[in-house]
UniProtKB/TrEMBL annotation:
It holds the Pfam family HTH_5. Keywords: Methyltransferase, Transferase. PANTHER family: METHYLTRANSFERASE. The lineage of its organism: Bacteria, Pseudomonadati, Pseudomonadota, Alphaproteobacteria, Hyphomicrobiales. This is Demethylmenaquinone methyltransferase/2-methoxy-6-polyprenyl-1,4-benzoquinol methylase/ArsR family transcriptional regulator. It comes from the Bacteria. Residues 8-103 form the HTH arsR-type domain. One of its GO terms (molecular function) is S-adenosylmethionine-dependent methyltransferase activity. Signal peptide: none annotated. InterPro entries: ArsR-like_HTH, HTH_ArsR_DNA-bd_dom, Methyltransf_11, Methyltransf_Superfamily, SAM-dependent_MTases_sf, WH-like_DNA-bd_sf, WH_DNA-bd_sf. One of its GO terms (biological process) is methylation.
Amino acid sequence: MGLRVSAADNVSFDAILVALKAAAEETRLRILYLLARGEFSVSDLTDILGQSQPRISRHLRLLCEAGLVERRREGAWAFFRLAGGGGLPAPLRALVDALPQDDALLARDLERLAQVREERARAASAWFARIAPEWDQLRSLHAPEAAVEQAIRDLVGPAPVRALLDLGAGTGRMLQLLAPQAQRLVGVDASPAMLQVARANLERAGITRAELRQGDINALDVERGAFDLVVVHQVLHFLDDPGRALREAASALAPGGRLLAVDFATHEHEFLRTGHQHRRLGFDDAQMAAWFTAAGLEPQPGVRLPGGGADGLEGGLTVVLWLARDPRVITDWSPGDRNSGVA
């Protein structure tokens, strides 16, 4: 009998008993203690706990079968995190939270956890350093990142967001930007290397509740109708069929939810196609509106941020924030949720 609930849900006696039995073993309780602080691979947990890979895998399997932990594939790797976005039944959450951090065994676990995170950060930084010159060249062509991010904040608004989905999560910046107002954070990217960068950046920022998944934006493996804000930031110009990706994104929206697409307006910088793998040289408003409509969404007023140009290139790149809303009426949210990121 699996258990996939949050502490606020009603939990049966039998479900709590299964959960407590699964956790009532030293290594498994230590694993839950660690997973309360983020998601980790079997290799990570092997290094932290100083145990063999088969032993750690067996404990993880038992925790998964009990519904306390979930497994996500990321290329050839698998990452584990607490099930249900970090929710544990209240009795077990209380036990995990009550574990003393000054216990010698747990203190060593936390010390090794810090080492694993440092290694992740070094690997991510080394990989990102190799592509940094390309990023710097692109940044020089359009509005400052700070201006773009402020425009995103303004357009999203200050209201809480129940569930945020970031498609093409990249370095995890959008998750960091909107984390203060989002109850749940899910990021999807096709690149395992980028996900490693995102994971390191989020951990450095103290954000351990984000769910990072490797996936195809054209065939999403996420809950349908579950997110009240979906962000597609600087991704569409890499795609052969942006309209298909927007339809997939729209399918993840909850009734009344919003889809925010951030990308370039049409331009003539052909070098971005030949040197940076851009499949599309920007988009115009009519095309975006048509794609939104085809996805069953209602276009909303957006924002344009002209670029200043650099390196002798005239006109720069204009960044556009296109917004659309799912027109379905919200019927299943509590009164307190009706302002959850949906203006």
